[in-house]
Amino acid sequence: MKFFIDTANLEEIKKAVDMGMVDGVTTNPSLIARENKPFVEIIKDICKIVDGPISAEVIALDAEGMVREGRELAAIHSNIVIKIPMTTEGLKAVKTLADEKIRTNVTLIFSASQALMAAKAGASYASPFVGRLDDISQNGMDLISDIMNIYDNYGYATEVIVASIRNPIHVVDAALLGAHIATIPFKVIAQLARHPLTDLGMEQFLADWEKRTKA
Ligand code: E4P
After folding, report:
1. Within 6 Å (CB) of ligand 1, which residues are found?
2. Which residue's CA is the nearest one to ligand 1's atom 7?
3. pTM score, two decimals?
4. 164 alpha carbon to ligand 1 midpoint, in Å?
5. Which residue ranges make up each domain of the chain?
6. Which value does ipTM take for this structure?
């Protein structure tokens, strides 16, 4: 399973890269807005740190505007993937960009029908948001299972990015379903590595070692 980091914060990206856990990066307008730098500058900086797909999202609501922004962003670096919202205008933009060999990530997917349409339009990636579904009492992971089955049935090349991840269980469940990618906030990447019994075991090993050398 590939791990993308879901942040625009360079420090978090660097720390996760040092852990060897970053295959790509996803950003969105909310994540970009948290940083104190112009959008394009942030994306260029991320490209210097990570050699993998880096999603940058368009702001336009019409297909023409999305395509224009998409072309501009794609020109920054070959690793840029254009993040497009799951709307009918977005689907048109995905088709145009796919014809130009520009990779897209269809975002804000909340149903299997939306994921099917993203794949048909030629999206390179589809991002279903599990956490936001869980937040409204719908099981987000059921959606991942449905999308994986549909993509499997027809051999779509579109890769599923499990997004809106809130905890380590989301990541493990996504892996059990065979999802291609999880895009994970830094806090959850750190949580994935931790176990209290590991900490306790280390403490005990070191304490025993101390006793042995003193004897
Ligand atoms: C995905 O690409 C989005 O950036 C992200 O996963 C959204 O997560 P949130 O629901 O925690 O905002």
Report:
1. 6, 26, 28, 107, 127, 129, 131-132, 163-164, 183
2. 164
3. 0.96
4. 4
5. 2-214
6. 0.97
